[in-house]
């Protein structure tokens, strides 16, 4: 299991080198800063040092047990992230595709709403609004009960 | 009992500080909130709508009725927006 | 849209360079040759040149329309593939994670049962049995009806 | 009408060739199969259980009742195992 919280850019290829030996199926999800509105220059991600690592490890451990994963990885950045930058990545390795997909979706649903990160938009004039949690993200968790 | 109380995101901004050390006899998170709200207007504003506030006790998510027995760190923050 | 059928190894990182500009969510699936049984040395993948490219492009096009994807890629190898080798990869880029995940699962379900590839196991003594299609793979398609 | 008939995987092995050119008056895939089965034992063995055989007509999946009108290439193969 690999869990990392860092400010720096990460390289998916090097994170996945040797990932999940013996696996038949590897799924990755990468979150990227969208610049939809045109006003937004970047996201600022605040987090709770200490709790973040604990929460991410707990979520990854749950996924690993539940789907008998061969390997799992979760990397999440904080700080200022420009439009187009990678925010985070999860990867799952399993024997078959159904397990790898389900575990990756589970990880994403939990990281969205249960890992202590908060996003705010940064415009040309500086910090803007905090991104509000979506009720759809909270709802997404209920499918794993 | 001495507690570290942490605030994140807009709660941090409304309180005006990321962290404070609090001397308290509160038995639960809910009692701690009542003491904090009585401190000043900033605390009152930040903690007025508890439906928009999440709590962690010693870095684990917890509810308002969680005991503070033996606890060293309590954090208040908005619903998380990771991923 | 990128669709490739090739014998050579592929490099996920270079395939994904510049993939899905403006996307918020990128999902990849990579299929790898498992060596579960211990007897198997490699897989031999036969395909139907011409039809393979058409079928893969048609499947990718359906996914793109159905989920309004920003980008989609599908690479599939043929020939002899050793245990541990990458067989194929799909990638999807969308605004949000639910679309990217669903489209990647759709692509996999269709590639499994509707792209003209046939696998056989190669043991120490040479070619072994053709891999039989699983009814569970056929069943998986019905969820997209 | 002259058709290219292609075989893949174990059908190719049972037929003994990946491809053959066939002169036929068959109107449908089903009629073509009947002609092929009558050719020799190899064809009969390969095409005996049609529930295990899939068909493509000009590189598109098709069923046994598909017309051969204007068609140039018909392929027979087992259920696919890609991915």
UniProtKB/TrEMBL annotation, chains A, C:
Enzyme class: transferase
GO terms for MF: molybdopterin synthase activity
A biological-process GO annotation: Mo-molybdopterin cofactor biosynthetic process
Enzyme Commission (EC) number: 2.8.1.12
Recorded superkingdom: Bacteria
Pathway where it operates: Cofactor biosynthesis; molybdopterin biosynthesis
Annotated catalysed reactions: 2 [molybdopterin-synthase sulfur-carrier protein]-C-terminal-Gly-aminoethanethioate + cyclic pyranopterin phosphate + H2O = molybdopterin + 2 [molybdopterin-synthase sulfur-carrier protein]-C-terminal Gly-Gly + 2 H(+)
InterPro entries reported for this sequence: MoaE_sf, Mopterin_biosynth_MoaE
CDD domains, A to Z: MoaE
Annotated function: Converts molybdopterin precursor Z into molybdopterin. This requires the incorporation of two sulfur atoms into precursor Z to generate a dithiolene group. The sulfur is provided by MoaD.
Family, as annotated: Belongs to the MoaE family.
PANTHER family in alphabetical order: MOLYBDOPTERIN SYNTHASE RELATED
Subunit structure: Heterotetramer of 2 MoaD subunits and 2 MoaE subunits. Also stable as homodimer. The enzyme changes between these two forms during catalysis.
Name assigned to this protein: Molybdopterin synthase catalytic subunit
Gene source species: Paracoccus isoporae
Automatic annotation (TrEMBL), chains B, D:
CDD domains membership: Ubl_MoaD
InterPro entries listed in its UniProt record: Beta-grasp_dom_sf (IPR012675), Mopterin_synth/thiamin_S_b (IPR016155), ThiS/MoaD-like (IPR003749)
Pfam families according to UniProt: ThiS
NCBIfam families: moaD (TIGR01682)
Listed name of the protein: Molybdopterin synthase sulfur carrier subunit
The organism of origin for this protein: Paracoccus isoporae
